[in-house]
Design a protein that fits this description.
Structural class: mainly alpha
Number of domains: 1
Order of helices and strands: HHH
CATH class: Mainly Alpha
Number of strands: 0
CATH architecture: Up-down Bundle
């Protein structure tokens, strides 16, 4: 028979992966919308920069405590955040160049 502590660790890990999956998946639709449409008009660079910094710190924390759910979820979320920030930077740079050419 399995010891209660071993069962608890397994349950904790499963719960962590479920929570990590749900929170990461909740971010994916918005990221895909921005990346597909390239419409960055409603994207707050400040929010995504702060959010990316927080996610990066969660990723470091996950590595330090060796938590698989925290590492996986935050690695995926950070990659998506950085893609969005890159898209915002490129689109806004293109838009400002276009406006500059018109004058």
């Amino acid at each position: 028979m399995e010891a209660p502590q071993e069962r608890h660790v397994g349950l904790t890990t499963i719960l962590g992966f479920i929570a990590a999956t749900l929170t990461t998946l909740s971010f994916v639709p918005q990221a895909l919308t921005v990346l597909r449409s390239k419409d960055v008009s409603g994207v707050s660079v400040t929010m995504y920069t702060l959010f990316s910094a927080g996610v990066a710190l969660w990723l470091v924390y996950g590595v330090l405590v060796w938590s698989g759910p925290v590492i996986v979820a935050n690695a995926i979320t950070l990659a998506l955040c950085l893609l969005i920030l890159r898209t915002v930077r490129r689109r806004r740079s293109e838009a400002s160049k276009t406006r500059g050419d018109e004058t």
